[in-house]
Amino acid sequence: MDIFYSISWKPLIALLISNPETQPEFFAERSPKTYLPQMTCPLLVIQGKNAPRVVEEESRLLVEDLRGMGKEVDYLMFEDEGHDVLKFENRVRCYNAIVDLFKEKLRP
C-alpha cells in the first residue's frame, strides 16, 4: 500500500477517486504514478519537510523512482516549511528555481 493512502486520507480518496482496496484497477488507472514512465518533460518537485498532507518521504521516493527511470527531475526540499512555501527567503529560492527551470528548458 502506498504511503499516500494514509488513514486520514481514506474517506476523501475513496470519494474523489476510488477505494484502492476494493477497486485497485480503477485506482491504478487514475493514479499519476501509473503514467510516470511516459513522462517526457523535465520536472521540479518542491517539498516542505514538515508537510502534513504530502509527506517528504513520498516526494523523495517519487524523485528516486523518476531518476531510476532516467527522467530529468530536480528536487527542492525546504527543511523549515510545511505544505506551502511561506518564508520569504524560501520563496525567493523557490521562485528562482522555477524561473531557472523555465529559462533552461522552455524554448521559444
List key phrases describing it.
108 residues; alpha+beta; two-stranded parallel sheet; globular
State the separation between the terminal residues, measured CA to CA.
Answer: 42 Å
Largest beta sheet: strand ordering: 1-2
- How many structural units, i.e. domains? 2
| Overall body shape | globular
Q: What low-confidence regions span 5 or more consecutive residues with pLDDT below 50?
A: 1-5
The helix/strand series, from N terminus to C terminus, equals HHEHEH
Structural class: alpha+beta
Largest sheet: 2 strands, parallel
> Could you tell me the mean pLDDT?
88
> Which assembly state applies to the chains in this document?
single chain
How large is the radius of gyration? 16 Å
How many strands? 2
Q: Which percent range describes the beta-strand content?
A: 5-15%
Helix-residue proportion = 40-55%
Count of individual helical segments: 4
What does this structure look like?
With 108 residues, the protein is of the alpha+beta class. The protein has two domains: 1-30, no CATH class; 38-105, no CATH class. It contains four helices and two strands; from the N terminus they run ααβαβα. It has a two-stranded parallel sheet with strand order 1-2. Strand 1, helix 3 (56-68) and strand 2 form a beta-alpha-beta unit. The termini are far apart. Residues 1-5 have low confidence and may be disordered.
